[in-house]
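Need tokens for this chain, all 410 residues.
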Amino acid sequence: MGSISRTGKRYLVYVRDDAGKRQKLRLGEVTKAFATEVARHITRLEKSRKFRVPVEADTLHWTRQLSREHKEKLHNWGLIAGAEVMRLSHLLDIALAEIITEGLAENTQAVWRRVAHKLRFYFFGDPEVASLGSGELSHYRAWLHRRSNGIGIDTPLPKTNERAKVGTGYPISDRTSIIAMSRTRRIFDCAVDRGVLERNPAADHIRPPSYSGPGPAEYHRVTIEEFEALCSYKNDPTWSLIFALARFGGLTIPSEALHLRWRDIDWGASDRHGQMTIFKQKIRKRRICPIFHELRPYLEDVYDLSPDTSPSAYVISDKEIRTKGSFPTALRIMRTALGLPHFSFQNFRQTRSSEIADRFGAHCESAWLGHSIMVASRFYYSAADEAMSIACSTETGAKNILPDRSLQAR
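Here are the structure tokens for all 410 residues:
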């Protein structure tokens, strides 16, 4: 068991290693009370190793406050687990092994690997996980916001503190940095679960739970006129179908549209409706939604012109679009040329979500577009300007939901 000895003003504690050999833990010039406290914790660690019982909480906290030299000594003597001196590279390997499962989409796997690579890039030298606190993560988030653009998985790790010189130099948005920090928190959760950290240092640098979704300025209802202008500008049946799948089908572009095959299209018959089976690669689930009457003509045009309509063929079969197409960039170029306001493919989906909820109810919108009603209410629903006009008018057939105060005043 841990015992103390004194030589002049210097104290040391005797420790038994795994082999039973007596080792010395030199403390230097400290008080007797301090040396006695160290010996008490050493005794607890030896008992925990001998009887294979959990370490008491205050002793576990004490081991986390030790210097790197003392941690490594106790680890070599078998008194604390290797996780107690876990380094960042080890943590990233453990976290990626837990997060990247067999069913996870390839794009999502690449996102997580990129997050891990940026952590390795910034915290060069493979530091101890226990040395990374909230302050270090605050500087890391600031670096993400300012300089992390252009750093991919293939970017070589720095040999010195040269990270501030690397990157494209233009900042990413605040929302993107928050998403990146949310993934960073998920990685550091693995260290908390293993007792290496008492508290996640990245928890202070993400959006608070009270976030209620995009603000009114981020909603834009894509009108039929804007949709038709985009189709006329491209004058291509495949691009018109892509816009129609987003605007009238509510599909996510490009993932859901590019996974759509002709076997997923059930045209229906005179006695039944047509429907589509949509596959969401990210969560590997399928959903069924109707072939809306606005969407059907665009599907039929592409079907008539497609060289291969076998069940396994893709609906969007243009090789250039599938391999080289950057959908957000193409939409931005078309918007700019036509003088249209700023909107993205997400706004197509938001618009259709609100239309379906208005006409068929939230339960149908949730089933057909593949998300919960709570998610839809936070991120998709928006009030149309026409609804405001109807609510203020008495000539359109809208029912009064409150008594007419003008009559009461009389």
